[in-house]
């Protein structure tokens, strides 16, 4: 594990070097300039995973180092030609195997750059073998993101060689005696702070702190304002279209907004609510074709791998079809985001949310403490979930499950909006239980939608010409597989719902959300 | 983890040269790599300037009283570690015999490194012994450097026979031609018209090149002092080819 020291003003590298040279066999490597770029996803997945990804150009190649920010753990390195944008662009191997689960589908973006002049000393033993490294870095911030260039700490880094602890310990003693202080944070964090970036600052979660006594209409505005913020944070990335997660988060914020408008009743004038419901429904419509295609492309490899090896190649034309249409749909989406209608919507919506609440409101819920309204709404929707679920048996049509799925989603959103009003661990546990049920219902629905969409695609491909019968056959096999899985999901449902509706669990919900006068389930 | 052995019953065919150069290439790609010098002569340890010494010797190692990790040394190259040889390895068969499952000992010792190393190279001593049986068991691929002579081809057949007789998977065996001397007619005719009974023969062969011998005076892998030599290029090609054949280790 590397040990970093900060070199205080007035300590010169040459002096350190000559002193070390007196007592050790040293090999001095030529000094080098290095431009290091630190990468992370928009939502800081690497940082939140306690790690950093450093890229240095070396001729026509990139040297990537992925290492822990704090504590022990092994660094991983990789030499690649082009800088990968996604984990899936990496060559097969350990680096990718470990990075993919952290980064998933997100794109790597450059977060900060550091320019360093590095001087490396190798400490050698009698066999001229390297037994420790001392790297001295003179660090600066090049011009970036409109910020002027600046200075960063100079650092001395001891890199041990496994199995040779002694020379390292001696170096540590030596550096301390020379007035160097151990660094508390990685240089990347210092660099981020200097350019004013806060790692971990983006989250698509609501992360609100609501006061239970707050007026319900004011609290609703707080929730909706936060959702607007998430939407706007994802707008640029949505327009670019390379990282599908921007559009995903953008859409989730829209759906939550619509749900809040419908579910938190009698807080805003009906006319206002209706108007924005229409507008956000429109937002849902314009973003959905792109999302559908994204989902297929994200799942594409899984689809292909589910087919017998002999026909896997036949499905490739579908990928090309998807990519082509994704481009077309993105253009349409960007056009909609540039439209006057969208700009007006965002402006008016923001104005409305930032206006103080109407002190003379006569609406039933606007004055009530948010906690009352929250409990009432959650309890009511929860009871509906139980009622709908209980009514489902082996003969029930698929639509009944879809209805239940929608009700569950409403419940989930409500619980998330008002999460901060309840004891954290308890509501989290109930959300987790609901999530398990939702996953099952979601699968059931997804498989069905995928089957329908695949059928539509195949017709479209025929209409566009040049689709081979082999491709259509392979798609047919995919559809079979999806239908089988949907069937499986249906079979799992009964058990999942039984777990969710255990009377013990009902008790937990009741305790948290039902007021004493409320009817029981 | 992928475990690659370099093995031949015959001595002096380029086993160590192959293990050292391929391990160096693997590490250069950024894959955490370990080379285990199992030969009491300690040639691989010598190339990496690591003392061929294991405290307590091979006996202690097999008994598993101490963590194998304590014996591992970093080399001069990032990502490349070495488990040194020890002169006591010459008695390895004796220690192995005393263990519970004599042919599974190496496998057992490597298991804790499953996530630590991406590649493990085993540089083996010549001859068939309990050590080599352990290697056949532990390795996912066994590279067999073969000098293109009639006798060497026979040796390869013997190895395959041994595999069949001991219910080992012969598809693990990856022979390739080593120390090919184009001035020798026999070499040329064998390499150019490779015998049909050399199953799994890799396409790449390593030429005879005095640069390989110079590894001894440089005490470094080829790529460090003669990166553009013909042999260095061939080892690169060999590594690319070997990677295509590797399977994951269970
Ligand atoms: N391609 C080559 N060209 C020239 N010399 C080579 C070549 N490969 C190996 N040598 C030399 O041949 C000798 C034996 O090689 P090496 O040690 O790699 O073989 P080995 O099979 O490991 O031997 P042993 O059985 O003794 O362990 C060494 O001196 C080495 O430098
Ligand atoms: Mg050898």
Report on this model:
The complex is a heterodimer of chains A (521) and B (250). Chain A is of the alpha+beta class and 521 residues long. Chain A has 3 domains: 3-194, Beta Barrel (Hypothetical Protein Pfu-838710-001); 213-357, CHAD domain; 368-514, CHAD domain (Alpha solenoid), CATH 1.40.20. Chain A is 56% helix and 15% strand. Chain A contains 15 helices and 11 strands. Chain A has helices at 13-23, 45-48, 94-103, 165-177, 187-194, 216-240, 244-263, 270-306, 316-338, 340-354, 370-390, 398-417, 424-464, 469-500, 503-513, and strands at residues 3-7, 25-28, 32-40, 51-58, 61-68, 76-80, 109-124, 130-141, 150-151, 154-160, 181-182. In chain A, strands 1, 2, 3, 4, 5, 6, 7, 8, 9, 10 and 11 form an 11-stranded antiparallel β-sheet that branches. In chain A, strand 4 and strand 5 form a beta hairpin. Chain A is globular, with a radius of gyration of 29 Å. Chain A starts with a strand and ends in an 8-residue tail after the last helix. Chain B has a single domain, classed as P-loop containing nucleotide triphosphate hydrolases (Rossmann fold), CATH 3.40.50.300. Chain B contains 11 helices and 7 strands. Chain B has helices at 15-28, 43-47, 57-63, 92-98, 105-110, 130-138, 150-165, 185-192, 210-218, 222-225, 230-245; strands at 2-6, 33-37, 73-74, 80-83, 119-123, 141-146, 173-177. Chain B is an alpha/beta fold. Helix content of chain B is 40%, strand content 13%. In chain B, strands 3-4-2-5-1-6-7 form a 7-stranded mixed β-sheet, with helices on both faces. In chain B, helix 1 crosses helix 11 (230-245). In chain B, helix 7 (150-165) links the parallel strand 6 (141-146) and strand 7. The termini of chain B are close together. Chain B is globular. Chain A binds chain B through residues 63-64, 74, 76-79, 93-95, 122, 127-130, 160-164, and chain B through 28-32, 48-51, 71-74, 76, 78-79, 81, 116, 118, 219. Bound molecules: adenosine-5'-triphosphate and magnesium ion. Magnesium ion binds at residues 15-16, 39, 43, 123 of chain B.
């Amino acid at each position: 594990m590397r040990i970093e020291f900060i070199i205080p003003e007035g300590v010169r590298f040459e002096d350190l070097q000559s002193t070390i040279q007196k007592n050790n066999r040293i090999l001095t490597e030529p000094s080098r300039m290095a431009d290091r770029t630190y990468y992370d996803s928009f939502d800081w997945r690497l940082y939140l995973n306690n790690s950093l990804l450093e890229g240095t150009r070396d001729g026509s190649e990139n040297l990537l180092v992925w290492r822990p920010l704090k504590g022990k753990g092994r660094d991983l390195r990789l030499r690649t030609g082009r800088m990968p944008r996604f984990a899936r662009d990496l060559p097969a191997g350990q680096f990718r195997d470990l990075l993919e689960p952290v980064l998933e589908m997100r794109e790597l973006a450059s977060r900060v750059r550091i320019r360093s002049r590095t001087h490396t000393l190798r400490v050698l033993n009698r066999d001229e073998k390297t037994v420790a490294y001392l790297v001295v870095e003179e660090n600066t911030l090049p011009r970036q993101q409109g910020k002027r260039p600046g200075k960063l700490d100079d650092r001395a880094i001891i890199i041990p060689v496994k199995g040779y602890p002694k020379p390292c310990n001696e170096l540590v003693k030596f550096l301390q005696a020379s007035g160097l202080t151990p660094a508390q944070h990685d240089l990347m964090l210092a660099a981020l702070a200097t350019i004013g970036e806060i790692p971990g600052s983006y989250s698509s979660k609501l992360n609100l702190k609501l006061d239970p006594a707050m007026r319900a209409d004011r609290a609703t505005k707080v929730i909706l304002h936060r959702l607007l913020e998430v939407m706007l944070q994802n707008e640029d990335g949505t327009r670019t279209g390379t990282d599908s997660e921007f559009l995903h988060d953008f859409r989730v914020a829209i759906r939550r907004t619509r749900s809040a408008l419908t579910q938190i009743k009698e807080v805003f004038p009906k006319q206002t609510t209706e108007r924005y419901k229409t507008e956000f429904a429109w937002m849902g419509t314009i973003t959905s074709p792109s999302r559908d295609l994204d989902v297929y492309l994200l799942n594409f490899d899984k689809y292909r791998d589910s087919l017998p090896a002999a026909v896997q190649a036949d499905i490739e034309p579908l990928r090309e079809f998807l990519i082509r249409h994704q481009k077309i749909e993105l253009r349409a989406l960007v056009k909609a985001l540039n439209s006057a209608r969208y700009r007006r919507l965002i402006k008016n919506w923001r104005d409305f949310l930032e206006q103080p609440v109407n002190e003379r409101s006569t609406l039933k819920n606007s004055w009530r403490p948010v906690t009352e309204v929250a409990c009432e709404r959650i309890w009511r929707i929860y009871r509906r979930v139980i009622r709908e679920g209980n009514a489902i048996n082996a003969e029930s049509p698929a639509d009944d499950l879809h209805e239940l799925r929608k009700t569950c989603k409403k419940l989930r959103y409500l619980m998330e909006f008002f999460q901060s009003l309840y004891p954290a661990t308890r509501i989290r546990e109930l959300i987790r239980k609901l999530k398990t049920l939702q996953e099952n219902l979601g699968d059931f629905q997804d498989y069905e939608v995928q089957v329908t969409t695949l059928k539509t695609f195949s017709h479209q491909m025929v209409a566009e010409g040049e689709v081979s019968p082999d491709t259509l056959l392979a798609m047919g096999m995919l559809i079979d597989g999806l239908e089988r899985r949907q069937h499986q999901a249906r079979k799992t449902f009964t058990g999942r719902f039984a777990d969710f509706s255990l009377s013990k669990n009902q008790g937990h919900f009741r305790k948290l959300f039902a007021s004493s006068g409320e009817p029981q389930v | 983890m992928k475990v690659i052995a370099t093995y031949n019953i015959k001595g002096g065919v380029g086993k160590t040269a192959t293990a050292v150069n391929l391990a160096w290439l693997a590490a250069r790609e950024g894959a955490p790599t370990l080379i285990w010098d199992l030969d009491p002569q300690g040639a691989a340890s010598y190339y990496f300037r690591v003392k061929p010494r294991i405290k307590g010797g091979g006996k202690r190692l097999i008994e598993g009283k101490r963590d194998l990790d304590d014996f591992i040394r970093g080399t001069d190259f990032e990502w490349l570690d070495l488990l040194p040889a020890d002169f006591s390895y010459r008695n390895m068969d004796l220690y192995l015999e005393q263990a519970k499952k004599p042919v599974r000992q190496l496998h057992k010792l490597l298991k804790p490194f499953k996530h630590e190393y991406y590649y493990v190279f085993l540089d083996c001593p010549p001859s068939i012994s309990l050590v080599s049986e352990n290697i056949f068991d532990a390795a996912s691929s066994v590279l067999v450097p073969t000098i293109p002579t009639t006798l060497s081809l026979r040796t390869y057949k013997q190895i395959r026979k041994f595999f069949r007789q001991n219910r080992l998977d012969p598809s693990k065996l990856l022979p390739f031609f080593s120390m090919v001397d184009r001035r020798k007619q026999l070499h040329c005719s064998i390499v150019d018209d490779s015998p049909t009974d050399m199953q799994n023969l890799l396409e790449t062969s390593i030429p005879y090149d005095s640069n390989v011998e110079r590894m001894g005076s440089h005490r470094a892998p080829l790529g460090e002092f003669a990166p553009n030599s013909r042999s260095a290029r061939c080892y690169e090609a060999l590594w690319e080819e070997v990677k295509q054949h590797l399977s994951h280790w269970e």
